[in-house]
Each structure stands twice: as C-alpha cells, then as structure tokens.
Write a structure and sequence with these properties.
The chain has nine helices and 20 strands. By secondary structure, it is an alpha+beta fold.
Amino acid sequence: MSIAIKVEHLSKSYIISHKIQSGHANLRDVIAEKIKGAIDTSKKIVSNCPVLKNQHKEEFWALKDLNFEVKKGERVGIIGHNGAGKSTLLKTLSRITEPTSGRISSKGRIASLLEVGTGFHPELTGRENIYLNGAILGMQRTEIRNKFDEIVSFSEIGKFLDTPVKRYSSGMYVRLAFAVSAYLESEILIVDEVLAVGDAQFQKKCLGKMEDISNEGGRTVIFVSHNMQAITSLCNRVILINKGSILQDDETNRVIRNYLMFETSKKGIIEWEPEKALGDSIIRLRAIKILDQENKIRTHFFSDSIIRIQFDFEIFTLDNLLVIGFDLTNEDGIIIFRSYQHDGIEESWPNLRNGFNSIYCAIPSELLREGTYFISPKISLHGVKWIINSDPLLSFDVELNHGVSPYWSFYNKSNRPGILSLIIPWKNLE
C-alpha cells in the first residue's frame, strides 16, 4: 500500500515573550506604559520604568522530532491531553504552519477541517463558499457542480444556502464545512475536534461518512478527538502525543487502554492553581474530586456504594447557557454516560453564582460493574462553544459486590456480561 503522508524529524518551536517586573508598578508606570504603546517618542519617558525594563524570551517546542508514516486509506487517530501538540501537528500537516525543522511529504490534495469557519469567506453565501473551497482544491467548476447536491443534502442547510455564512451558527458552519471537506475530491482528509460543536446525531453521521470515504474511496483520514469512543469506532490506528513527542503508535485499543491507565490521576482528586486552572474568561475549573458518602476522597469503591463526583470552580461571567459536567468512560474508551448539572428537573439544578462554586452529583449504587472508570470534564455554553472538552483526567475502580448470582463462582463474578450491573426487579403478572 502506498504512503499518503510521511513525516520525518518534524519539529515546531514558538518564541514566547515574558515581561519581568523588577518592582511594583505605580500610577506613573501604568501611564508610561500606555503612552509607550501609542507614541514612539514616549520611549524616553518610560525607559527607566522598572516594570518594562526586562523582557525574557522563551523558546517553546510544540513538536519535537516526530517521525511516522500514514498509508493510503488508513484512518489514524491522534490523541493526547490539551497542549500536547495535536493541533500544531495538524496545522503543519495541512500546510497552514511551516515547521521549524524536519520534512512532510504528502501524496494528493489535502482537505482540512480544523476550526469553525476555517476556509470560509464570511461575506459569501454557503453556495459561493462551496465553489470557493472547490477552486482552492484545484477542482473544475463542473466537478464541483457534480458534488453540489450531495454536499447540500449532507449538510442539511438547504434553506440557508444563499445566506452569508457570517450569519450561520457554529453548528451550521460545521455541517457545511464537513460536507465540503468530505465530498470535494481530496485524497487526504484532516479533521480536528471541531466536530464536537455539532449535535450527537450529526457527529455519528460524520464518523460514518469518514469510514465510507476511507473504505470505498481509499481516502486517508487523520482524526483528532477527545472522544475515545469516536476514536475507537473510526480509527484502526492511534498516535498518542505528549509534550510534542510521540509516546505510542499502535493499534487503537492498545493505545487507548494505555492512555487511560497511565495518563490519568489515581489520587481521587486533581487541583489547579488559579493561574493554571482550566477554562476561560467565563469560568475556571479549580478542582475535581471523587468522594464517598462520608465526603472522603477515595479511588476504590464496592459496586453497592454511592460515588460522588464534585467540581469546584470560579465563575466570572454567569450565563444561563453554562453547563458543567463530565463523561464517564470505561477501560475501552466507551462512554457509559454523560452528566450535566442541567440534567433532570429544573428545580433540582444547582444555583450557580458569580464567584466560587462547589457542586456534585451522585452516581447511584448498584449501577456500575467491576472495572476501572475515567472522568472527562466537559464545560460549555450550550450550543455555542466548548469551554473545557477534556480527555480523561481522573480514574477510580469498582469491585462488584451486588447482584452476584449463586450459580457463579466467587472468582468468576467479574465475567457478568454488559456495560452496567443494574439490577432491575421482576414481578409476577397479576
């Protein structure tokens, strides 16, 4: 099988500037700094300002000496924690960013879907952007026209086709962008986590389409996602990246199991200092805790126990669309369930407020079967954007001690079938 992409000794660095303060800023310093940004002649005024004197430049390596090959028709997943270098890698593969050193060889046209709105002109309509993207890929107008109806049908935005895309919601952007990338004739399709903006049904539709174009059309797919279940269902190979380096490149199940087992905290708690907390200007996540019914941190539970998951966070801008929760996944990366604070009856929702908040949910007893489980925090403005869409960060173990049939041996109880061990009562028909 021929090679679609070959990466040799790929590295990418950025220069980060840090201002070093040699003293406390007073009013004079602040005024001087403002003047410096607006008037060139002010350099003399602020030259003695202690706040601005020193500047330290740091070289940050987002990618370090990466080497791998992707064969034609392969579906390769790329996983790793936030900041691992996944997005930088995709940008270099897509020729958006030039590498600092190393070489990328590719065979065929590349279509990439990396950020909402990437490749679209906001003033043009959906129809015009379809033709624009096809032209960028080097397609003739007749070729684009032959694919046009399929793109519109898949994206499900027919009634907005002649509306400027600047008026599209993020979900509409993604629908059209994916349809354009999937149906226009490129040999390599690169897709980032941007698909998470769409609804679950459309995500499933996209995964199915990526599998089809790989199996039937022999096209190569590179897919980045925080959803291990999506990676498992689509990819036959996974590359795990950490701090810009490849930790593992192997079959999907092997890589995901190792990633979940060794890259998550087993302490039952993970905390962040204010300056390093996950989030943005709306909310910052400060801690996640796994607790028992006595509010003690634990990582090992019997299956008849109630397990509490607690989130501590600081809200800076309260928004009614804010939803806070997590995915619970098993050792195979399958999502057992997703829970948000907006689930259930409105009267039971936690009362969020500006400032520090602590909320929790309780996983019912007699629900989970024996095994290891992982918590992936998920915080978003519903239908607008992800704020935190993380890989698994914490894990806990469950030992089965409920619903064990007397016909099973004690040592064979872990072989109970099913993802859950929910006991559902049976009654006589009256």
